[in-house]
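Hey,
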Amino acid sequence: MNEAPEHEPQWVDTGISVLLRAGVIASMTVVIAGLILTFVNHPHYISSKTALGDLTDARAEYPHRVLDVAAQIREGHGQALVMLGLLTLIATPVARVAFSVIAFALEGDRLYVVITSVVLVLLLVSFTLGAAG
C-alpha cells in the first residue's frame, strides 16, 4: 500500500508566501521612493531629454557595492535608493532559501537542511565573487 507523500506544514507555505510578498512590496516601495527622490532633486530630468538620457546611460557610474549604496543614500541620492530596492528584490529569494533551511531544521529533516544549506552557501558565494569582479 502506497502512502501519500507528506506535505509541508501550512505554516511553511504561509511563511514563504508572506516573505516573498513582503520582499517584493518592500522592494517596489523603495524603488518608487528612489525615483521620486531622484526627480525631486533633479526636476530637469522631466523636461530635458539630454539630462534624462544622462540618468539612464548604461555607461554611467552607479553604486554597485552595498557600502557605496549606503553612502550615497546618506547623501540623498535617489539613484542609490533605487539600487537598494533592486538589492532588496535580489535578496528576497535568498531569504526564502534561508527560511527553508530553518523550516527544514524545525521539522527535523536533516537531508533537506543539508541540501538547502548548500544552495544557500552557493548563492552567497556567487554574490560575493560577483561583487569582487
